[in-house]
Amino acid sequence: MPYKPKVPCQHPGCAELVEPGKRYCEKHKAMHPEAVRSARKAGYNRQWEKVSKRYLQSHPLCVRCMAKDPPVYRKATVTDHIIPHRGDPKLFWDENNYQALCKECHDRKTLTEDINPEYHY
């Protein structure tokens, strides 16, 4: 039976091959904790759900849609971290780091901004 070939590590500049389904080699796995832990372990638990729901009740419209010219009035469904917390609990729970987004804007932000983290060596 044929097997799936190994794929390159997704860390920028790394050519190490990893098993299919894995994203990073052993050397770089520690630099990408957001990719190897579950959402619950990242802090998205029942307490987060309550905080998020309360935030969306007080901020019902998507801030990115409202910033368009002319403004688009779209219901916010996601409480987003403006600066990705990457496991930092202080940044995770800081309400000044939250923004209300619709799913479309959140997905676009995640794919364009949050997917390319800054690395500190």
Question: Would you write up a description of this structure?
Answer:
The model has no long low-confidence stretch (mean pLDDT 86). The strands form two sheets. The chain has a two-stranded antiparallel sheet. The chain is 35% helix and 10% strand. The protein contains six helices and four strands; from the N terminus they run ββααααβαβα. By secondary structure, it is an alpha+beta fold. It is elongated.
Secondary-structure-based class equals alpha+beta
Whole-Å distance between the termini? 42 Å
- Put simply, the count of helices is 6
Mean pLDDT: 86
Poorly predicted sequence stretches spanning 5 or more consecutive residues: none
Largest sheet: 2 strands, antiparallel
